Amino acid sequence: MEIKCVAGFSVITKQPAASASLYKEALALPLERFDDHPDYLFVDNFPGANHFGVWPLKMAAQSCFGQDEWPARVPEPTATVDFELADPAAVEAAVQELKAKGQDFIHGVRTEPWGQVTARFMSPEGVLVTLSYAPWLHEQEV
Question: Is 105 a domain residue?
Answer without folding.
Answer: yes
